[in-house]
Amino acid sequence: MSETPQQRVTRPHDDAWALAISLGVVGLALFGLAGAQPLGWAARFEEWVIPAKAVRPVAWEMPGWLSLAATIAAVSAVLTARLAALGRPLAASLGASLAVVLLGLGAYLLGHQACVAATDDRKFILPFRLGLTGEAGYLVALAAGLVLGNLFPRVANAIAPAARTELFIKTAIVLVGVSLAAKTLGQQAAASRVLLRGVAAIAEAYLLYWGLVYLLARTVFRFPREWSAPLASGISICGVSAAMATGAAIRARSGVAVLVSSLVVVFSTIELVVLPFLARWLLPDHPMVAAAWMGLAVKTDGAAVAAGAVTEALYQPGPGNLMVATTTLIKVFIDLFIGVWCFVLAIAWQRWFRTEPSDKVRWMEIIERMPVFLVGYFLAFLGLMFLGNQWPATLGGIKLVEGQTEAFRKPLFALAFLSIGMATDLRRLASPGMGRLVLVYLVSIFGFIIWMALAISWIFFHDIPALPVPVTP
Amino acid sequence: MNNDQRELLAELDDNPAEPLARGEVILVGSCLALGTALLVALALLL
Question: Contact A211/B28, CB-based, under 8 Å?
């Protein structure tokens, strides 16, 4: 399938929009440094028995329902603006955006119902208690997306333009940068340890996974090079963005990367549902190994960071823990690594496998696929770290900044879960001709990738506590 | 799935892949060697 101009521009657009939206949120939240909270109206979701008590504003004095309505309106308005900027009709854009936001936040709210979420017996009198924390809302959103995408495809197609996993998760990742800075300020040892171990873990994981999957695809499953490289990148660690960028780097036909990507989405959803629970069962006392494992094993930014959030909910290590930050950090470094790796592949293909003079690598195409939203992540993280270190008096203000950004990060995760579910077309697995692709994926993922990821996570994270321990001089 | 994608998959089934080329052996060999070396070195260092 040749990529339409619309498809070609959508991904960079998502990155640019994610960067703009997240920096806008962080910019407004930064007034917290002066004690003001312009985003204090945003909704904070709480465990509930009486629906009226399910939401309260972050800081402002106002009714919970008004805060929820304001949050729905604000997020819908931004999504509508994005679609309108892409040339879609305003009314349809507003309808689709509102539907996605209502579904996503509705599911998230449902997951906060006390019978599902409550972890404390003393807080409510309940007939039963699952104790999954409010993050169960993510799984409710995922289930809603799966039902919608697979049983009501027409409805899903109608609202799909507003359900952008990449947009939601990349915006949320920048906000995780704020959260990581706020949690590790004053504890540079913990921050640099997690950073260093994260880089160390992905450096060799990527090389080992890629080499093994490529070899498996070429020798055992007899795939041609054009398929094996995007498969290796997509399956091994980085998911959709890696498969697409690799496809561009080796000049594969765009349909190859699209087919590989569709498979990645389906399997990342399966991983997202299975791996957090497997981690909790296999590693009851090692939350940071579990968090790193999600980053190293689950494909695509959305599913990986989402899996990190579910894993954190299963461990409940307490406020201020570094679990989601660790999963995100690993994914962020992997995103950076995709760029380097695609340049290596482009040079290798140009040197060894170019068959026609017109087969030249289009460097601009690779550069366009670089994750620009990471600029926002590093700006937020390093900027706040610098502020807090230079002027320790700003620490209280930085907590206010984090409080406001967190109010958007969690609902964005919920929207990402809904979108992941909607995009997961389970019928793809049964499509004619997909058998060999599904098989190579299954063998790679469950045969060695998740186990190697577990071993590497254990090596680098088994001695790091989930809650940073202040270092006394 | 559209027709182009079906054709790509059909082509995949019909055409046997060529054997590994020298460049691929170098690429995959370097990945595995460097990955293993890094894993051992970093695990010992950190």
Answer: yes
User: Cα A451 to the chain's mean position, in Å?
Assistant: 21
User: CA-CA distance, A459 to A455, in Å (whole number)?
Assistant: 6
Residue type at B11 in one-letter notation: E
Pick from A251, A250, A217, A192: nearest CA to A385: A192
Prediction pTM value: 0.78
Residues of B in contact with A351 (CB under 8 A): 23
Task: Mention every residue, 6+ apart, whose C-beta is less than 8 A from residue A395.
Answer: A185, A186, A388
Tokens of B19: 């054997």
Average pLDDT over residues A155-182: 88
Rounded average pLDDT over B4-27: 81
Put simply, the answer to whether A208 touches B13 (Cβ < 8 Å) is no
Q: Which amino acid is at A290?
A: A
Judge whether residue A444 has pLDDT over 50. Answer: yes
Which chain A residues touch B2 with a CB distance below 8 Å? 1
Residue with structure tokens 């201020």?
Answer: A320
B3, B9, B40, B45: best to mutate for the A interface, most A CBs within 10 A: B9
In sequence order, the β-bridge partners of residue A43 are: A57
**Alpha-carbon span A245 to A210, nearest angstrom:** 14
Could you report the predicted ipTM of this complex, rounded to two decimals? 0.94
At residue A208, what are phi and psi to the nearest 5 degrees?
-65, -50
Question: Residue A43 belongs to what H/E stretch?
Answer: strand A43-45
Chain-chain contact of A1 with B2 (C-beta, under 8 angstroms): yes
Name every chain B residue with its beta carbon within 8 A of the beta carbon of A348.
23, 27
Q: Which of B6, B28, B30, B44 to mutate to probe the A interface, most A CBs <10 Å?
A: B28
pLDDT for A1: 35
